[in-house]
């Protein structure tokens, strides 16, 4: 009888831990980002000067303190991607990170296909927003916009525990 009781306790504990882990990964750490009109969507000009805001509306974003790459946002813009490409730096990152399923405006698979087939263009928003992490903005032919964070070359090395090398800026000291 004691064996059955312990087995039931173990099964219930395992199930509760699995449910909690799923919840925290998909819902628990994310927060809605409060929009900051005129500052939410910025792009880096071709000359490398400070990022400039572009026209946008219908902005929605989520973020989490648990990781520097959990930021996702969606917006619409009346500016064409061709017009933006004449003024702003294009990004080499072409594979957006998945968003939680409940954040339904950000479809990473569809956006990845649009970037691959040329119906969307990715731009550099902010380089080294956090050490080794760039903010990327993509705009489609239909005026839909998407934002996500991506490790740059220095970030991939630093967060994997490798030496970053001489081409990377020094890593900031932690408090």
Features:
6-stranded antiparallel beta sheet, 4 helices, two-stranded antiparallel ribbon, 2 domains, about 180 residues, alpha+beta
Describe the 3D structure:
The chain has 175 residues and is of the alpha+beta class. It folds into two domains: 1-30; 33-159, no CATH class. Helices cover 28% and strands 26% of the residues. The strands form two sheets. A six-stranded antiparallel β-sheet has the order 1-4-5-8-7-6. A two-stranded antiparallel ribbon has the order 2-3. The N and C termini lie far apart (54 Å). The mean pLDDT is 88.
Strand content of the residues, in percent?
A: 25-35%
- Computed over alpha carbons, the radius of gyration is 20 Å
Order of helices and strands: HEEEEEHHEEEH
How many domain modules? 2
Distance between the termini: 54 Å
Largest sheet: 6 strands, antiparallel
By secondary-structure content and strand pairing, the structural class works out as: alpha+beta
Order of strands, main sheet, comes to 1-4-5-8-7-6
Q: What coarse outline follows from CA principal-axis ratios? A: globular
Number of strands: 8
Unreliable parts: none
> How much helical structure, as a percent, in the residues?
25-40%
